What does this fold into?
Amino acid sequence: MSVDARELRRCLGHFATGVTVITCAGDGMPHGATVNAFSAVSLDPPLVLVSLDRKSKACKYLDGAPFTVNVLTEPQDEVALHFAGKPMNGEPEWQRPDSRLAPQLAGSLATISCTPWRSYDGGDHVLYLGEVQRFEVAGGDPLVFFLGGFRHLGPVYEPVPWFESADCPSTSWFVASS
Ligand SMILES: Cc1cc2nc3c(=O)[nH]c(=O)nc-3n(C[C@H](O)[C@H](O)[C@H](O)COP(=O)(O)O)c2cc1C
It folds into this structure.
C-alpha cells in the first residue's frame, strides 16, 4: 500500500504542537534545528524523544551527543525560522549553564537538557531519546504550530469534563499549569 507523501504531511499538520529548537554542539560551535516532533516518553528514567531528518546537520551532531530541547515562546517565532533555514537579523543569544551539557537558547519557555540514551531507525528520520539531566521553566505563552503556520494559544477550555478522573491532566503525570 502506498500513501501520497504530500497528502500525509498535510494530514499530520492537523496535529497542533508546540515548537522546539534542539540545540547541541557541532564542530565546536552551538547548533540548533527547529523541531515539532518532540515528545515526553518516561518519568523513570526521565526520557524525551525528538525525531530528526537524516539529511539535517543536527542529525549528524546528535549522534551520541548531549542535546537540549528549547520550548519556544510566542515572541521567539523568528528564532524558530532562524533554525529552520531562514536566518534572522543577528544571532540568537546562547547560554551554557553546564559545560557537560548542550548549549541552550536564552528566552525559551522551558529548557530540557539531556544526555544521549538511545537512537532508533525512524525511516528517513532518526529518533533520539535523551535522558533528562537538567530542566528549567520560565514564563510566557508557547509558540503553537498548526497546518504549516504559527498560532496563538487560545483561552483555557472549560469545563474540563474529566476532572478527578484517572486521565485528568492536573492530577495525572501530565504537568499542571502554574
Ligand atoms: C515549525 C517547524 C517544525 C519542524 N519540525 C521538524 C522536525 O520535527 N524534524 C525535522 O527533522 N525537521 C523539522 N523541521 C525542519 C528543520 O527545522 C530544518 O530542516 C532545519 O533546516 C534543519 O537544520 P540543520 O540541517 O541545520 O540541522 C521543522 C521546521 C519548522 C519550521
